[in-house]
Amino acid sequence: MSESSSRRTPAQLKARRRWQVAIALALLLLIIAIALLVRNWHAPPAAPQVNHSYAEAMEQAHGGKPGAARVLYQQFSRTDLSDIRRAGLLAELANYPGAQALKILRGDLKRPAPLVQQAAIQTVTAMLPQAQRSTLLGPLLEDTNDEVRFSAVRALLPLTPDELGLYYGPLQEAAQQYEHALIAQPPSGQRQLALAQLYLNNGTPQQAVEALELANRLEPDNLETGLALVDMLDRQGQTDRSRQLLAQWLQKHPQSSLAQHALGQWLLRHKQTEYALLALTRAIELEPDNTGYRYDLAVALHDLDQLEAAQRQLEDILQREPADRRARILLIRYWTEAGQLQKVQVLLAELEQLNADDPALQQGL
């Protein structure tokens, strides 16, 4: 021990020890602070604050309330959503297109959750015109999950070769896989209906007819496949047989809105417009809440120059379902045709309240 150390008093030694402890604590705190700072540099950014519950967001989106798009988009930032809840959000997203909606769809189409991917496929089909679908859905034609891959096939089958572009070949290959998978399973009405659609895509309409005929033999009370055969026969030029079969279904199901709607569409194709309107109206009487039937009636009325009647049908849809963008956009166009610009401005203002990023607003409808 040095002479200077031996000369220190006990008080001085005690003070020195306190300083050493203080310095050690300060260094420890500094190390902890640096560690926290480094961790925060590498931590993912905090999720955006969600101000509404899932139920509130769904109610606002489905009810077409002001700010619905913003609240709906916000829900997709959550990390605690189950697949089924995310699929429910995607179903509502179809009425709220925009750049943010496309970003959400691109992410969910790649999400490793088949239920979410299939819901996203349906939303793309409902939201985007055919020419814009292949870019988003084309990559799914090579998805490892059969259900996802075949859902993409069904969504892309209506597209033309030009609309498919680079995905024309992959679609044909995936469609062949889908066909083999359907044939390998016991035949049923739904499987035969799917096969018929594939045969039409392959340019073999007679095989499509045969597939639906088998479906009717397997499930003689299946109205959906029965009416699909009616439509198929009619489009293949077998008008008499198609009419006879349709009459049989109508006799068997006189109170079926689906059968009445099919009758209306059949009569429209054959230029029997007055009778077609009666059938389409009857379908709505049997199922008043079916907005799809009302939309088809509105289009038929407009094509027959009954503009005011067509507008009334679309207004009824929006009263029942304010979020129905398809009906709103068509009504805007019809009011524009009629020169009712004040009503157009009201509808556009409502659309902006729902979704300020709606492409229709940017296009200046």
List keywords for this structure.
365 residues; mainly alpha; 22 helices; 73% helix; disordered N terminus
Describe this structure in words.
By secondary structure, the protein is mostly helical. It has a domain of 75 residues. It is built from 22 helices and no strands. Helix 18 runs antiparallel to helix 19. The longest helix has 33 residues.
Share in β-strands: under 5%
SSE succession: HHHHHHHHHHHHHHHHHHHHHH
The level of helicity is over 70%
Oligomeric state of shown chains: single chain
- The pLDDT mean sits at 89
Q: Nutshell version of this structure?
A:
The chain has 22 helices and no strands.
Topology overview:
Layout: H1 3-7, H2 10-42, H3 54-62, H4 68-75, H5 83-93, H6 99-110, H7 114-127, H8 134-137, H9 146-156, H10 161-164, H11 168-184, H12 189-201, H13 205-218, H14 223-235, H15 239-252, H16 257-269, H17 273-286, H18 291-303, H19 307-320, H20 325-337, H21 341-354, H22 359-362
Helix pairs in contact: 3-4, 3-5, 5-7, 6-7, 7-9, 9-11, 11-12, 12-13, 13-14, 14-15, 14-16, 16-17, 17-18, 18-19, 19-20, 20-21
